[in-house]
Amino acid sequence: MRIERFRWWHIAQVLPIEEDLFGVEKWSSAMFWNELAQRNFYLVALDGEQVLGYAGLSVTADESWVQNIAVRRTAQRGGVGRAMLEALLAEAARRGVKQTLLEVAVDNAPAQRLYAMYDFEPVAIRRGYYQPSNTDALVMMRNA
Description:
The chain has four helices and seven strands; from the N terminus they run βααβββαβαββ. By secondary structure, the chain is of the alpha+beta class. It has a single domain, classed as 3-Layer(aba) Sandwich (Aminopeptidase). It has a seven-stranded mixed beta sheet, with helices on both faces.
């Protein structure tokens, strides 16, 4: 596995992963194009030319937000998500960010456990954040 910058040509492989993992709450092609156009920091994990997963980070002056981390079902529990999270946190540190935040579905215990391993702590709940399922999001934060 190798991790590299997410480029526009990866979008075609990312969309089926989005569909599989997130269903009606999936991101569209336009949403990924917008993230890249805003120059947010996005990565893909690759096995050869196949996208195993992707992750994004939005950075402001002193904080960053993990936009998403997603791993193809057949590659889950193999360290792909952890490797991408570590790469995002390294980029945040390189940019001198003081804190990193993220939102995760309240019913996604495996992701919450991963984030807790990297010192993310729950700080808030966003009621009905994920639509159309109306699922709450847990906001987690980590200080640099």
